[in-house]
C-alpha cells in the first residue's frame, strides 16, 4: 500500500528533488543564457557514461512540495530548466502549471523515454539507445541533442533526426570523457552534414556548476 507521500509524488504535487541552482545554460540552443535548473531524481534509462548517476535512485532524494520549488525558482530567473534524472518519470503537469502561473518560461531536458507531460516553451530531446523516445516527444522536440560517444552514434543520430520536425534544431555533442577523441570526427561530420550544429558542454570548460 502506497504512503500518502508516495501518492503525492505519483500525482506530481511533490517531486524527488535532487538539487536546484541558478547558473548559465552550458549546452545547446540556449547556451550562455542565465537559467534556474531544477534537477529531479529518478531515471531507469541507464546510460553507462551518465555524469549524474546519483540522480538515478529517486528514493535518496527528498520528496519536495512543488509549491516550495516554484517559490525558490521565482526568486532567480524567468527561464526554468527541468532536468534529471529523467523528469518525465513523473507527471510534470502540476509543476509547469505553477511555473507558468508565475510567468516563467519552462524548458525540459529529457531522453523522451516516457510520455510528455507538462506545458513547455522549449523541449530539448536527447534520445538514448537503451530506451527510445515515445512518438509524442519526437513531435514536440524543439532541439535534438545527440551525445556522441563512438562512431555508431552518428548512425543513431541520423535515425533520430528523421523522427523530429523539420524546424527542430539538430546538435551533436561529444560525451565529456570522449571529447578529445570524438571532436575531430564530429567537426568533420558537421562540415559534411551542415544541418547539424556542434554543441559543447561549455559550463565544464568555464568551470561553472
Describe the protein in words:
By secondary structure, the chain is an alpha/beta fold. The chain is 28% helix and 24% strand. The protein has one domain: TIM Barrel (Alpha-Beta Barrel), CATH 3.20.20. It has 7 helices and 9 strands. A 9-stranded mixed sheet has the order 3-1-2-4-5-6-7-8-9. Strand 6, helix 4 and strand 7 (143-148) form a beta-alpha-beta unit. The radius of gyration is 17 Å and the shape is globular. The mean pLDDT is 92.
Tell me the domain tally. 1
The class by helix and strand makeup works out as: alpha/beta
Question: How would a crystallographer describe the biggest sheet?
Answer: 9 strands, mixed
SSE pattern, N- to C-terminal: HEEEHEHEEHEHEHEH
Sum up the overall morphology in one term.
globular
Radius of gyration: 17 Å
CATH class: Alpha Beta
Q: Widest sheet: strand order?
A: 3-1-2-4-5-6-7-8-9
- How many DSSP helices? 7
β-strand amount: 15-25%
Write down how many β-strands occur, each being a DSSP E stretch of 2 or more residues. Answer: 9
Q: What's the mean pLDDT score?
A: 92
CATH superfamily: Aldolase class I
**N- and C-termini, Cα separation:** 39 Å
Reported CATH architecture: Alpha-Beta Barrel
CATH topology: TIM Barrel
- Give the fraction of residues assigned to helices: 25-40%
| Poorly predicted parts | none
Amino acid at each position: 500500500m502506497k504512503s500518502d507521500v508516495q501518492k503525492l509524488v505519483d500525482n506530481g504535487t511533490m517531486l524527488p528533488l535532487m538539487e536546484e541552482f541558478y547558473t548559465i545554460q552550458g549546452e545547446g540552443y540556449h547556451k550562455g543564457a542565465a537559467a534556474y535548473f531544477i534537477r529531479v531524481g529518478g531515471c531507469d534509462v541507464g546510460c553507462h557514461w551518465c555524469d549524474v548517476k546519483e540522480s538515478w535512485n529517486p528514493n535518496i532524494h527528498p520528496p519536495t512540495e512543488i509549491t516550495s520549488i516554484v517559490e525558490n525558482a521565482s526568486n532567480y530567473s524567468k527561464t526554468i530548466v527541468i532536468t534529471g534524472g529523467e523528469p518525465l518519470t513523473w507527471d510534470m503537469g502540476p509543476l509547469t502549471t505553477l511555473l507558468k502561473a508565475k510567468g516563467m518560461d519552462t524548458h525540459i531536458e529529457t531522453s523522451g523515454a516516457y510520455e510528455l507531460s507538462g506545458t513547455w516553451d522549449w523541449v530539448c530531446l536527447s534520445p538514448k539507445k537503451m530506451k527510445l523516445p515515445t512518438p509524442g516527444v519526437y513531435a514536440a522536440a524543439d532541439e535534438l541533442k545527440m551525445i556522441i560517444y563512438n562512431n555508431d552514434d552518428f548512425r543513431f543520430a541520423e535515425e533520430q533526426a528523421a523522427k523530429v520536425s523539420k524546424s527542430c534544431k539538430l546538435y551533436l555533442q561529444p560525451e565529456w570523457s570522449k571529447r578529445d577523441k570524438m571532436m575531430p570526427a564530429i567537426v568533420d561530420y558537421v562540415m559534411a552534414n551542415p544541418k547539424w550544429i556542434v554543441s559543447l558542454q561549455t559550463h565544464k570548460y568555464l568551470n561553472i556548476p
